[in-house]
Amino acid sequence: MTAVPVSADPIKPPKPNRPSDITGLALDGLLPGTEWVLSLFVPGRVAPQGSKVALGNFRMKEMSKYVDAWRTDVRAACAREWAGRPMIDEPIIVQMEFVKARPTTAPKRSTPSATGMPDLSKLVRSTEDAITSAGVWRDDSRIVVELVSKRIAEIGEVPGAHIRIGVAA
After folding, report:
1. pLDDT digits over 146-158, tens only?
2. Nearby residues of 68 by Cβ (< 8 Å), 6 or more positions away
3. What pTM value is reported for the model?
4. Check: CATH 3.30.1330.70 for 22-167?
C-alpha cells in the first residue's frame, strides 16, 4: 500500500514530482532544535552505489559507470563548502533530494514521478560515502535521522542533489 499525500484541495491531488524547497521540508518542524551546518546543491548525474556486476575470477565492479564521477562531484562540493572545519562526530540529521536528469521521452507539459531505477537507498549510499571521504563527518553511522527523496527534473532544471546536514540538538 502506498502513502498518498493529503491535499488542501480535495478536488486536485498534489503533483508527486513538484520541486520542493529543501529548507522548508518537514524536518524543520519535527526537529526544531537542529543546527543546520551545511546546505548545498551538487549538480551532476546522480548515480547509485551498491549494485555489482561479476567480471569473473571473483572480481566485481560497480554496475553504474557514473558512480565514480558522482562521488567525485559530491566530495569536491562538500570539501569546498566545508572548508577545513572539524569533522562532525555528533548525532547527525540529513536531508537529500535527488533530481534525476529528465528523460527525452518525458512529456513536455508535465513531469512523471521518479519511480524507476535507480533505488533511492543506493543513491543515498554513494552520496553518504562521498560526504564521508570529504571529511564532513567522521562516519555515516552518526546519522540518526534522514529524509531522502528522488524526482525527475522539471523542464530546464539542472539535475543533481540538494543536500542539507544538521547536528541534532
Report:
1. 999 888 888 888 9
2. 62
3. 0.77
4. yes
Per the model's pLDDT, the better-predicted residue between 59 and 31 turns out to be: 31
pLDDT of residue 65: 64
Average pLDDT over residues 22-43: 73
- Per-position DSSP letters for 23-87, written without gaps between them: GGSTHHHH-TT-EEEEEEEEES-----S-EEEEETTEEEES-TTHHHHHHHHHHHHHHHHTTPPP
Q: How does strand 52-56 pair with strand 59-62?
A: antiparallel
In angstroms, the CA 110 to CA 106 distance is 8
Angle in degrees, 0-180, between the axes of helices 120-133 and 67-82, rounded to the nearest 10 = 50
3-state helix, strand, coil in the chain (%, to 5): 25, 30, 50
Q: Is the pLDDT of residue 51 over 90?
A: no
129, 49 in Cβ contact below 8 A? yes
Nearest to 100 by CA among 129, 70, 133, 128: 70
Contact 124, 96 (CB under 8 A): yes
